[in-house]
Design brief:
The complex is a heterodimer of chains A (119) and B (106).
Chain A (H helix, E strand, L loop, with lengths): L2 E5 L3 E2 L5 E8 L9 E8 L3 E9 L4 E3 L7 E6 L4 E6 L8 E8 L7 E2 L3 E5 L2
Parallel strand pairs in A: 2-11
Antiparallel strand pairs in A: 1-3, 3-8, 4-5, 4-9, 5-6, 7-8, 9-10, 9-11
Chain B lengths: L3 E2 L3 E4 L5 E7 L7 E6 L6 E5 L3 E2 L7 E6 L2 E6 L8 E7 L6 E2 L3 E5 L1
Parallel strand pairs in B: 2-11
Antiparallel strand pairs in B: 1-3, 3-8, 4-5, 4-9, 5-6, 7-8, 9-10, 9-11
The chains are: A mainly beta (119), B mainly beta (106).
Chain lengths: 119, 106
């Protein structure tokens, strides 16, 4: 069965870079039309789509955060990665990784990782 | 961005039928998806592409609509359906979510 789990620093300071890892099983990013997406849930904006990395290394970003986001993958180890540069308190929230099929629904979600940005 | 508007809250009794609406500020074809989120849990996909039941989801859940107006229906409602329900569109850039409808079971 499909399973995903996010991991990350928990707490970081303003202007630092947030690095998150998504470790998954039950599917492969080597499979055609498969992707891993990143979504966050904040008290300010609710659920917010961030980015997707696809099986062929194509990437899609939310334009409002585009310049701050980087996504990458390690197909052989079933991992995907998200980096957000220059964080501030508005980036505080729960970050989820998801399995993404071709129609861009978010089929399976990880349990989420809480990230707090505080000085 | 495409704004998805949902009513904030609904309250129904077990055994009743409930319809949760989602209105998009511009057309999204049939690329509307529905999720259930219980307190302290991650969202769970219920319906994809407007009317397709996700794997393992009970047939009590159904979806309809196209263009700008969509509905998630639960019939009959059970006590375990207490949750917040979100719609999400993937037709327009960027993908967006509604603010959620909190469903209370009386």
């Amino acid at each position: 069965q499909v399973s995903l789990k996010e991991s990350g620093p928990g707490i970081l300071q303003p202007f630092q870079t947030l690095s998150l890892t998504c470790s998954f099983s039950g599917f492969s990013l080597g499979t055609s039309n498969m992707g891993v997406g990143w979504i966050r849930q904040t008290s300010g904006k609710g659920l917010e789509y961030l980015a997707t990395i696809w099986w062929d290394d194509d990437k899609y970003f939310n334009p409002s955060l585009n310049s701050r986001l980087t996504v990458s993958k390690d197909t052989s180890n079933n991992q995907a990665f998200l980096k957000i540069t220059s964080v501030d308190t508005a980036d505080t929230g729960t970050y989820y990784c998801t399995q993404v099929p071709g129609c861009n629904s978010f089929d399976y979600w990880g349990q989420g990782v809480m990230v707090t940005v505080s000085s | 961005d495409t704004v998805l508007t949902q009513s904030p809250a609904l309250a129904v009794s077990p055994g009743e039928r409930v319809s949760i609406s989602c209105r998009a500020s511009e057309g999204v074809n049939s690329y509307m998806h529905w999720y259930q989120q219980k307190p302290g849990q991650q969202p769970k996909l219920l319906i994809y592409k407007a009317s397709n039941l996700a794997s393992g989801v009970p047939a009590r859940f159904s979806g309809s609509g196209s263009g700008t107006d969509f509905t998630l229906t639960i019939d009959p409602v059970e006590a375990d359906d207490t949750a917040t329900y979100f719609c999400q569109q993937s037709w327009n850039d960027p993908f967006t979510f509604g603010s959620g409808t909190k469903l209370e079971i009386k």
